[in-house]
Amino acid sequence: MKLIVFRLCFVYPLANEVCYETIGCFSDKPPWSGIPGRQLFGLPASPEKMNISFSLFTKETGNLSQRILYNEISSLQNSSFSPLRKTRFVIHGYTSTGKYGWVVELCLV
């Protein structure tokens, strides 16, 4: 079994909409923000500024993860990822790094 953990950080530019070629557009209106109880303000920074990466846990890597960069196919090709195996994604949220606590514990189950 392998798990991939998402790590997202947000920077808040002043704009009404922002678009990124690889992931699409975001507006400062619902469903992205403006919803009571959702603590998001502003718009997300570019994936390059956010330094998006995935932590790959497999039986081979045990409790050590391999870092997969969203925009570097070689990081995936050089990892122990196999499309033939079942893959699960753990999304920890934007306020956490996903490197400690419950996220890692869940990946080791």
TrEMBL record:
Its main location: secreted. GO terms for molecular function: lipoprotein lipase activity. It catalyses: a triacylglycerol + H2O = a diacylglycerol + a fatty acid + H(+). Keywords: Disulfide bond, Lipid degradation, Lipid metabolism, Secreted, Signal. Residues 17-107 form the Lipase domain. Its EC number is 3.1.1.3. It is found in: Secreted. It is an enzyme of class 3 (hydrolase). It comes from the Eukaryota. Pfam families: Lipase. Residues 1-15 form the signal peptide. The keyword rRNA processing does not apply. GO terms for cellular component: extracellular region. GO terms for biological process: lipid catabolic process. The keyword Transferase does not apply. Belongs to the AB hydrolase superfamily. Lipase family. This is Triacylglycerol lipase. It comes from Laticauda laticaudata (Blue-ringed sea krait).
